[in-house]
Design a protein that fits this description.
mainly alpha
């Protein structure tokens, strides 16, 4: 006769649910303003200073995860070099760091260097007051990109800076 009890009797789940008091709806009703209930919470991003970005990129630069994938490593190198150039306006040593970073980039990934990388590298060398190095880089870039107007403009800047100093 136990099987009849199982068939006609309430299951444990139904019994527990039936005896419980749902105070959830009461709490929602007492809240009052239900318009904001379904709206997700918006958390704004904090703006990181340029030096903070540089610090994060420097930490990320030589991690095994970054170095294992060349496109990711190249992206970090480019971002870090651009940030170094922006910080170089405040402190001169960042120009030298940017120039060294592009040297490393050329050693590690010479076939991945684009024209803009050469241009920025030459500008970093000029701003770091490495005029002879900048001229050597300009010759090399001219062989890779003959007749480029952007390189002509940079050459004029290099000659202007070297003539002034």
């Amino acid at each position: 006769m136990g099987f009849l009890k199982k068939i006609f009797g309430k299951s444990k789940t139904k019994q527990v649910r039936g005896e419980s008091e749902l105070s959830l709806q009461k709490g929602l009703d007492s809240r009052g303003n239900l318009a904001d209930l379904g709206r997700p919470a918006v958390i704004g991003r904090k703006t990181i200073s340029l030096k903070g970005q540089v610090r994060l990129l420097e930490e990320k630069l030589n991690t095994p995860e970054t170095r294992s994938t060349p496109p990711k490593h190249i992206e970090v190198i480019r971002k870090l070099a651009n940030n170094y150039l922006e910080l170089g306006e405040e402190e001169f040593e960042y120009y030298v760091k940017a120039e060294n970073l592009y040297k490393q980039f050329n050693v590690l990934y010479p076939l991945h260097m684009e024209k803009i990388d050469w241009v920025v590298w030459i500008e970093a060398s000029v701003k770091a007051k490495l005029i002879r190095e900048a001229r050597r880089l300009l010759k090399e870039a001219r062989m890779l990109f003959p007749g480029d107007e952007q390189l002509d403009k940079i050459e004029t800047d290099i000659l202007h800076i070297s003539g002034a100093s």
